[in-house]
Amino acid sequence: MMMFRERGADKTPRAPPPRADGKTQPATLPRPSKQTLSPPQTTTSRPPELLLGADRYGPEVDAWSVGCILAELLGRKPLFPGRDEGDQLRQVFSVLGFPREEDWPGVTQLEFYGMARPEGHPRPGSGGLARWCRAQGIEDPHAVDLLGRLLSLDPRRRASAREAATHDYFYEAPRACYPHELPKVDDSHELGVKKRAAAAGGGGGGG
């Protein structure tokens, strides 16, 4: 079961299913074999291997997307707000560094690697992600570590779904809660908002 964190809530600690080291772990799905498909993610969460032209990939691309989404949730702004695919790649390299063969074996063989330029980008491992987190007020070391594991430039080094779900970040206070325990928020759709505003005499709004 997917677990969600409700920050600031006074929840009684609960235990998901046990994991190998005596902590707890949710069920995970098997890792499918790599396959050739069109890019599945929106540009701002597309992993560097796809931006560099890889056409065979597996669940590692989803780990990257989860990392981008988690970073945005914690930092309240996109981590890599690229305007297009080229700018997206520059955004990734500006934070995580420009990869070379020793950082990511096989990267130089990707179709568009030769079009990328290392000038102006740090080396991988120079702490760019940690600096971004500090700038956004993300001070939890477990959160920063989890982001780093999900956002590895080399897809083979990214955390798997099992590794991410059993990371220490999900076992610190405030503890995870089940979906039905989350605060209830009324649905809000643009058309409904305009209708309610018009009925209240406030006009239909712009946009």
Secondary structure elements and pairings:
Blueprint: E1 4-5, E2 35-36, H1 48-51, E3 56-57, H2 60-75, H3 85-96, H4 128-135, H5 141-150, H6 161-165, E4 176-177, H7 190-199
Antiparallel strand pairs: 1-4, 2-3
Helix pairs in contact: 2-5
Give a concise summary:
With 207 residues, the chain is mainly alpha-helical. The chain contains 7 helices and 4 strands.
Structural features:
Transferase(Phosphotransferase), domain 1; 7 helices; mainly alpha; two-stranded antiparallel ribbon; single chain; 207 residues
Model description:
The protein has 207 residues and is mainly alpha-helical. The model is unreliable at 1-17 and 24-38 (pLDDT under 50). The chain starts with a strand and ends in an 8-residue tail after the last helix. The chain has a single domain, classed as Transferase(Phosphotransferase) domain 1 (Transferase(Phosphotransferase), domain 1), CATH 1.10.510. It has helices at residues 48-51, 60-75, 85-96, 128-135, 141-150, 161-165, 190-199; strands at residues 4-5, 35-36, 56-57, 176-177. 31% of the residues lie in helices and 4% in strands. It is globular, with a radius of gyration of 20 Å. The chain is built from seven helices and four strands. Strands 1-4 form a two-stranded antiparallel sheet. A two-stranded antiparallel ribbon has the order 2-3.
Overall morphology: globular
How many discrete domains? 1
Identify low-pLDDT runs: 1-17, 24-38
Sheet-strand content, in percent, reads under 5%
Mean pLDDT: 80
> Number of DSSP strands?
4
Order of helices and strands: EEHEHHHHHEH
Major β-sheet strand ordering: 1-4
Helical content class: 25-40%
CATH fold name: Transferase(Phosphotransferase), domain 1
**How many strands, which pairing sense, and closed or not: the largest β-sheet?**
2 strands, antiparallel
Radius of gyration (CA) equals: 20 Å
Query: What is the CATH C level class, in words?
Result: Mainly Alpha
Question: What would you say the CATH architecture is?
Answer: Orthogonal Bundle
Name the CATH superfamily classification.
Transferase(Phosphotransferase) domain 1
